[in-house]
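Please predict the structure of the following assembly.
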Amino acid sequence: MALELYLDLFSQPCRSVYIFAKKNNISFDFKKLSLLDGQQYGEDFGKISLIRKVPALRDGDFCLAESVAIMLYLAEKFKTPDFWYPADLRQRARVNEYLSWQHTAIRMHGSKIFWLRVRSPSLICVGAVRLVMSYLSSLPFIGLLAQRESCSEPLSAWRDRVQEAVGKELFDEAHQYILGAQESVKSMDSSKMQVYKPKILRLFM
Amino acid sequence: MFLPDVVSEKSISGPCRAKCSIQYSKEFGDISIVRKVPVMKDGGFILTESTAILEYLTQKYSGSVADHWFPADLQQRARVNEYFSWQHMNLRAHCSKVFLLRVRVPIVMDAEIPKETMDFALENVKQSLNLLEEKFLQSKPFILGDKISVADVVAVVEIIQPIGTGFDGFEGRPKLIAWRDRVKKELGEKLFEEAHEALMKSSNMPQKLKNSSSFAQLKPILQKLFR
């Protein structure tokens, strides 16, 4: 059985895993899951992951959740080039440090901005801030999605370097859905979002 | 577990301690701009984030740290990483929130916690504990299986966090109680008690915080965090 990756490319950690696997020519079955349609709550997906989040991996009998764990698993199993997750003690520690910190930092705040500005259009955006609609994926490869006019120069330069290292085609392919999010929400069936309303009210209001 | 050269109160100068809380001092900021604990200083190498520190220590001292703490096996290691990743925004976040809502937030924000807010926080803890039991532990003695690992240590300390405030996450969960007792036995009761001694005195933390000489400086910083 081929390795399976359950992904919705609207999700930041899914894009990390997708980009990492593709860049390293790791072949996998792309199992598309639509979070908007609530497919993560289906009975079949529950057998893959009780956590009911994406990304998820199935490798034979072995199922794994959490994008960080999945990428590190792939890096080790497929012996990707050392720079992705260095064997050197201190270098590896630096990557682990970032991977740990980002959960409650950039990832959390970026997601919040995304929800406020795209998924909850009736809500007023948080204050006059220079925050960008951004996300960070993991490993030494980091992708930054930013509204160019509000992204600082050092971050822009870094983003461009990452894009170049990954390859523009793969980078754009992974981001095509999310970049169109603000437009696509206009044609979105709002009844599908109602299931998220209680959570949004508690988390953001 | 031993952390070499961990930043301690003793390493911060006396006058600064009188003026401001230690993690906001200049000295600590020179060590870690993130201003959180734990921080590890190993010679010239400074590292933050507990899970990164744990992995660093197991890798550096691999000659003396038994493999079961952080196994080299591909799938076992993936399970540790999976737990480490999940717990940030789940068990850790939810237990911490209950702890903070009970001992910090009312003092800092000068307001009672609405019942709805506390109920929501408690419901989140319940969901996380359910997943710990059903997904991570299942019917195994420890998260990885027969032997204790760093995942068990990282998990157990979070559930204990709000106990001193009157919320016991183990209550009514015999599976978790049995697991906790196994973890305690593996670590040694003395070490376990020693690590949690300060926390168990947290019931008087609100008063202590209010009376602290650095509260006036701390209050606006904490209000921003809790808004």
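The CA atoms of residues 4 and 42 of chain B lie 7 Å apart. The interface with chain A takes residues 34, 45, 47-53, 55-56, 59-60, 74-75, 77-79, 81-82, 84-86, 88-89, 93, 120, 131, 134-135 of chain B (CB under 8 Å).
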